[in-house]
Amino acid sequence: MHPRIRPRVGVDYAVTFTSDHLSGGGTLTNLTIAGAEIRSAVDCPIDAHLCLRIQSSGARPPIVVTLAVVRWKRDDRFGVEFVRFEGQSKQQLEDMLNPHDSSALE
């Protein structure tokens, strides 16, 4: 394991994912701007390419990651690296992870 550059934020968000060969859902349990950990009954192989739809709390629109790569798996959990986002999803995620930034305040 490599040391983490970015701190993880513990969350409990619903997530759905699809690829050419599988689809399913689960719970996103921690999050950084670079990736996340997902708990799911679906067996996602390492190096699988997924499209994620993350439903955060409140009435925010879902965060859509058009390309995430499975980097590790253990039991019912796996970690993904975010590669490509849809539209403003990356900015939305950055705003959620940096609540002290005045642009994230409503």
UniProtKB/TrEMBL annotation:
<dbReference type="Pfam" id="PF07238">
    <property type="entry name" value="PilZ"/>
</dbReference>
<protein>
    <recommendedName>
        <fullName>PilZ domain-containing protein</fullName>
    </recommendedName>
</protein>
<dbReference type="GO" id="GO:0035438">
    <property type="term" value="F:cyclic-di-GMP binding"/>
</dbReference>
<feature type="domain" description="PilZ">
    <location>
        <begin position="7"/>
        <end position="97"/>
    </location>
</feature>
<dbReference type="InterPro" id="IPR009875">
    <property type="entry name" value="PilZ_domain"/>
</dbReference>
